[in-house]
Amino acid sequence: MTSQVSSAAEQAEEANDAVLGGQRAPLSGTTGTTGSDGKEIRRLDRVIIRFAGDSGDGMQLTGDRFTSETASFGNDLSTLPNFPAEIRAPAGTLPGVSSFQLHFADHDILTPGDAPNVLVAMNPAALKANIDDVPRGAEIIVNTDEFTKRPMAKVGYATSPLEDGSLEAYNVHAVPLTTLTLEALKEFGLPRKEAERSKNMFALGLLSWMYHRPTESTEAFLRQKFAKKPQIAEANVAAFRAGWNFGETTEDFAVSYEVAPASQAFPTGTYRNISGNLALSYGLIAAGQLAELPLYLGSYPITPASDILHELSRHKNFGVRTFQAEDEIAGIGAALGAAFGGALGITTTSGPGVALKSETIGLAVSLELPLLIIDIQRGGPSTGLPTKTEQADLLQAMYGRNGEAPVPIVAPRTPADCFDAAIEAARIALTYRTPVFLLSDGYLANGSEPWRIPETSTLPDLKTPFATGPNHTLADGTEVFWPYKRDPQTLARPWAVPGTAGLEHRIGGIEKQDGTGNISYDPANHDFMVRTRQAKIDGIEVPDLEVDDPAEARTLVLGWGSTYGPITAAVRRLRAAGAPIAQAHLRHLNPFPKNLGEVLKRYDKVVVPEMNLGQLALLLRAKYLVDAHSYNQVNGMPFKAEQLATALKEAIDA
Asked: Quick check: bond before 591 cis, omega within 30?
């Protein structure tokens, strides 16, 4: 969550993240009561759980359900789904491992956590792919049924890690998940392969018992999901209950845990768990309603942006129209056509799609029409890493078009913030008649956190008037419509809906004459139009950059986009240890806030962490002539807070 956290909560988080011998210490808890089963219930302030298995084991569904129950319980949370790019990677191999990490707490948290306190490994590949992230003393729940000779050989285990002593540093729970699931579902008469699929629900039931998660909504979810196959629905419910009962009765799990709701972390309001892509979808729908315009999405499916197309297609009742085009170029062409026709045009994609859309984005710059280009960034170049996160499209969004074609850029910082960023991008597009880039990424898109549902009265008014009549008087007194006659404040040209009597005007990619919109090859006019379009972008009103600097620090860490959570968590750790450091985070990347240059010059050192090779740092050095220090990572994963804290401490001490 982005709300302020109490110093006590900060200190608690820092204490739990203490480093012991180069490894993160396991979470400690206080002994609480004894449950009805006679087992100890230990209270914790936070837990990080990672479910890992084959891509066909249902780890994303398992994580989603545990997250939903945790959200309804009232914990703050942050998630990190991580899945292979292949539609169906070879079973039991390292490239086929899918995982879902959930960090939940009784206080305000910002990241999915650096390392899991509990790893659920459904097979040898899942164990091998994740064991390096697991701290000594953590709990590992292993499906022993999969640790046979052939699955172990696939990932290079010559001997069983459950028997050779290599896991002695961990608290290992060897559970025959497959066998127990088959036994629990014997009465349903399902084929063995069908029954085995429910082992993820057995694991979910076990973890739900361990952490006292609610169960009713998961059972209701399963019955709804498999409503057309009632036998499968009841089998999954039975497996889920069997996992719960196993935890309650087995001697291997002597302790269960409680993590209280985060009642002090959130302002009063109604909350729900939300992913970045869902929040972005809702923000787009809200923008259409606030502008009183139809919403039109022209899109081509691409990971990790496709969820937005799927979600918007469900909301025709809000005036949303979705078009799944035959390719990326057709998608943005349709969206730009819709903008010409008076709709709020949107196109969604990832980096490879932006490359294909670039000529039409340039056309939108020339036509000066409102258009939202949603780029859910992923690892590149080319096809790259479709399911992994990256922040490497900033320079592409800034400059990736021929000619001088400036485009505003907005970047959300958390999954929930995607809602507000979508509305802000729409505000700029509609007010200034320009295409706008919104740069999210795979980490935000697939991750989730609690979102406070806003009161509609607090949302901005985005209503934008269309041109209705002549706007210019010729020397002879004739009243005419000039499509490129500009608002003196915003430099926006009028938005004339086709079919409005008397407002006929030309569109196209050839340079326009100022005012009339006629085709012009005049050098002076082209120079004027280029400078005017740039001035329009430069003049966009954006809020000043806010700096969090409680101790008059000499070092500033400046981020953008999804680095907000790891940076803020790292800054908390440093401040708890007495290190002075200031923090600021950019939402608007073009134009930059007007006070950015003054802010940068106040500090001796400016550190810019990015999931690229230093793109924002390059822009800052060029524009403000400051020695911005890059700290970069391009491994397809978000920063870890501990990693950033170490780097920032070195910068402070240097």
From this structure: yes
Please report whether residue 2 resides in a domain.
Answer: no
> E strands within 343-453?
344-349, 371-377, 409-410, 435-441, 448-452
- Are residues 542 and 588 in contact, defined by beta-carbon separation less than 8 angstroms? yes
Confidence of residue 1 (pLDDT cuts 50, 70, 90): very low
The C-alpha atoms of residue 612 and residue 609 are separated, in whole angstroms, by 9
Domain final residue, candidates 234, 262, 290: 262
Residue written as token pair 């795979």: 442
Locate tokens 């809000």: which residue? 318
- Average pLDDT (135-151) is 97
Q: Distance between CA 608 and CA 448 in Å, rounded?
A: 25
Same domain? For 327 and 476 the reply is: no
For residue 206, which of 194, 195, 198 has the smallest C-alpha distance?
Answer: 198
Which residues constitute the domain of residue 567? 547-653
Alpha carbon distance 26, 116 (integer Å): 9
Q: Are residues 113 and 14 in the same domain?
A: yes
CA 346 to chain centre: 19
Distance CA 606, CA 600 (A): 7
Chain segment 545-568, per-residue pLDDT in tens: 999 999 899 999 999 999 999 999
> Is the distance from CB of 580 to CB of 652 less than 8 angstroms?
yes
DSSP annotation string for 69-97: HHHHHT-EEEEEEE--SSTTPPTTSGGGE
* Among the listed residues 123, 615, 95, the one whose alpha carbon sits nearest the alpha carbon of residue 351: 615
| Same domain membership, residue 586 and residue 496 | no
Q: Are 608 and 630 in contact (CB under 8 A)?
A: yes
Looking at the fold, whether 49 and 78 belong to one and the same domain comes out as yes
Dmax over Cα atoms in the chain, in whole Å? Answer: 96
Domain end residue (candidates: 406, 430, 458): 458
CA angle 466, 472, 476 (to 5 degrees): 150
Q: Residue 561: what pLDDT? A: 98
**Single-letter residue type at 340:** F
Calculate the alpha carbon distances from 517 to 364, 367, 434, 485, 514 in Å: 14, 10, 16, 9, 6
- Residue 246 contacts residue 208 (beta carbons within 8 Å): no
Tokens representing 4 are: 């302020």
Task: Report DSSP state, residue 519.
Answer: B
